[in-house]
Amino acid sequence: MKKIELHLHLEGAAPPAFIRSLAKEKHIDIGKIFDEAGNYAFDDFWHFLKVYEAATSVLTRPEDYARLTRAVLEQSAESGVVYSECFLSPDFCGGRDLGAWREYLHAIRETADDAGRDTGVTLRGIVTCIRHFGPAKARETARCAAEAAGEFITGFGIAGDETAGKPADFAWSFDMAREAGLRLTAHAGEWGGPQSIRDCLRDLRVERLGHGVRAIEDLALVDELAEAGTVLEVCPGSNIALGLYPDWRAHPVRALYERGVTVTVSTDDPPFFHTTMQNEFDRLHAVFDGDDAVLDRINRNALDAAFCDADTKARIAKLLEPGHV
Ligand SMILES: [Zn+2]
């Protein structure tokens, strides 16, 4: 099955071996972020954020991001992904300096075009501010996003520690991105409850929510999301790996879908959470009792909700047609 992925952090998709080899080349000691098997090791979400930032510290040049982009697209292609939207963070790409950001973005985009041809994966970028870095840095990130808005950079979002600050603190940045023509998404309803989703929708006016799964704790909110067509970028493997839910059966993806919410499925930071898009779809198949039509619907929801232009969407839609090789 050819797949559409909407919620993937570029650095979070970095294979551990890739990060290790870059650390070795640059003589940077980040050994303690790996376990004995060579996988990323962390205890909880907040420790995960620290490990994530340590791994990202070896990515110091545009060419590192070029290599990373190729590695990530190759990994996505192995799972049958044909279209992917990646979160890009100017915080990590040149420290929010506009000139440096342009160079990083050029390297990522050039590789996305080349590796896209080789792997068959079309990549688009969503510039993302980091919530726990605060609203002032988010404003600088929004300027980077607005400057880059176009065919490749299609959206703006916010990630990081959902318990830091409140959505209203970031409204200025989201307004700026919206005025630049960017589509909007925000992480909410993962570590924050239903109120975090309501606040986010009211103050940031996003059309998609990263996770949003904790809406299930307030069925009136679930009905509002269904009615409004708000799209959830659900990442079950991520939620389970971080202990938000004990297992796939306890995860609300099916309940949200059955109550009419527009559900999509992604991997978030796949090597960190020992998952792949193929794995997510295999597990989803079991959760929906082998109903292929539901998996197809979820995949098409993702294409409908993609931030790319209409021509790109039509081209990808053809790839999903039955019988297309
Ligand atoms: Zn995420």
TrEMBL record:
Name a Pfam family for this protein.
Answer: A_deaminase
Could you tell me which residue ranges the Adenosine deaminase domain spans? 3-319
Instruction: Write down the InterPro entries for this protein, in alphabetical order.
Output: A_deaminase_dom, Ado/ade_deaminase, Metal_Hydrolase
**Needed cofactors:** Zn(2+)
Q: Which GO terms describe its molecular function?
A: deaminase activity; hydrolase activity, acting on carbon-nitrogen (but not peptide) bonds, in cyclic amidines; metal ion binding
Keyword set, alphabetical order: Hydrolase, Metal-binding, Zinc
Q: Which SUPFAM superfamilies match?
A: Metallo-dependent hydrolases (SSF51556)
Q: What is its EC number?
A: 3.5.4.4
PANTHER family reported for this sequence: ADENINE DEAMINASE (PTHR43114:SF6)
Q: What NCBIfam families does the entry give?
A: aden_deam, PRK09358.1-3
- Similarity comment: family membership: Belongs to the metallo-dependent hydrolases superfamily. Adenosine and AMP deaminases family.
| Name of the featured protein | Adenosine deaminase
Q: Which organism is it from?
A: Szabonella alba
